[in-house]
Design brief:
Rossmann fold, 362 residues, 49% helix, seven-stranded parallel beta sheet, six-stranded parallel beta sheet, alpha/beta, 16 helices, 2 domains
Amino acid sequence: MKICTVIGARPQFIKAAAVSAEFARHSSIREVIIHTGQHYDHDMSEIFFKELRVPREKYNLRIGSDTHGRQTGRMLEALEKVLLREKPDMVLIYGDTNSTLAGALAASKLHIPLAHIEAGMRSFNKKMPEEINRIVADHLSDINFCSTSTAMKNLKDENLAKTASLVGDVMYDCSLLFTKIATRRCDPLRKMSLEKGNYVLLTCHRAENTDDKKRLKEIIDAINSISLKTAVVYPAHPRTVKFMEKYRLRISPKIRIIKPVGYLEMLLLERNASVIITDSGGVQKEAFFYKVPCITMRDETEWIETVKLGWNIVTGANSSKITRAFANFTRKRPSKTSSRPYGDGNASSKIINLLLKFRKNV
């Protein structure tokens, strides 16, 4: 069975690492990795290829950044050529990026069976490009692998129940796998002179927050206030720093702004933080995996289980809501829960078994 895996962004490399490692254990499966070139992370690539010994990408399409339409169109054109050459039995896509959408469209138009990992997630906000991408991908896919029962319900509501399988979250597999590797390879707390459980970790990168002066000011005002009570570490993307300078926002000297860190260092910074404040979807889940309270600076979240179980408070970019949520978590940490809404850490093996079963029944 030949599977062409389409990836293009760092979160997809991370998820694919766990699944590709599982593919490597099956002699009946040959995986061809196609990297669209949407993003590139040298640190992650080295872990992906060397540490886990999964195959390198056979193709790098080197599409790079562009407007949504141009980028997706260029990906679609390039993917079509590769898929016609490779003639795979299945195309596998991840998540909700433009690479996901292009992979779904290319496979569908060539009548190649399509499988989507992390299917069924919904923010119900169609202003998000990711929401459009994931809806289209789900509706084109022959198999939709769902991380949660909420995702299963979403697909049922869209008449896609027959395509849906609950396997758990590949990100949880990755968290278990990569944390072990991280503890062997790096020690960001020692390097930054941080104490476990004695700092707040901030991530803020979404355009809806960084490009909007009012929203970014609200966020910085809240973090400035929080930094008076505890250390704040902020791995900041240069683009965000540029906007802070453009808007002339006052940053407290108590906020420790550092350059972006590699995935392994980020996991350990998350695991050892007292509270995480973020606008990232993946970081919300990783905070829950490590049982670290999380404040989400978005107007909605796809990962509602983290909210229902008390480990995540969604505040939007509202200074008073952010500081109030921080105060709530400072007074009382959430109760430990035995609930496992994201599975048992074996999503990858379940996915492989279902792919083999699908192929057998075709």
